Amino acid sequence: MQRILIVEDEPDVAFGLTEDLTRHGYETQVATDGDAGLQLGQTGAFDLILLDLMLPHRDGFEVCRELRRRNVATPIILLTAKTHEAEKVLGLELGADDYVTKPFSPRELRARIKARLRQPAAAAPARVLRFGNNELDLFSAQLRIAGVTVALTPTEYRLLKVFAGNAGRVLSRQQVIDSAWDPGTFVTDRVVDTHVWSLRKKIEANPSEPRFLHVVRGIGYRFDV
Ligand code: CA
Hints:
Strand order of the largest sheet: 2-1-3-4-5
Order of helices and strands: EHEHEHEHEHEEEEHEHHEE
Distance between the termini: 38 Å
CATH architecture of the largest domain: 3-Layer(aba) Sandwich
CATH topology of the largest domain: Rossmann fold
Shape: elongated
Bound molecules: calcium ion
Largest sheet: 5 strands, parallel
């Protein structure tokens, strides 16, 4: 069941929202001021936050800004009483995802909620790319071959990241160059081959009979994991 935090100080509005959303299968909780909204919002226990702007203690802008500052990524829909364009823009700049203007129809709000909940949260970036018994750690930029750290040059690191990140795909030399070198850098095929060869010597038990990094004749490379 998806959980929605309602940050709203007007009892009638909070009650109406709770009724409607509960009836439509959501689990809800109400915070009646900005402080409570911030506290509950940052628990990460909610799939979405409905945030009124005019609130006691802390207004909705502040709650929104503070949640984003604390890296809370929960979708936020602002409930704005006024139709001031500047207010909406400010809200979105502070990290809100959407807004509805009061008075809103429950149906419209539910449509907005649904739309927000449908969008998958940004996938957490891969931290480690694995191939065989080896790992390329993208945080520390370290290559571990069967658990032993092996030093890579910056170019070798970028190449391996491109290859291991596109495992199974045939990449042309140009695609490799575009991904592993800065834009505008002039790189010849020979330079690519040289770096690929030195990378191979580090990751392959037998560089002449590669298990991972294969040349696809006339096209480019393919990396198998
Ligand atoms: Ca209010």
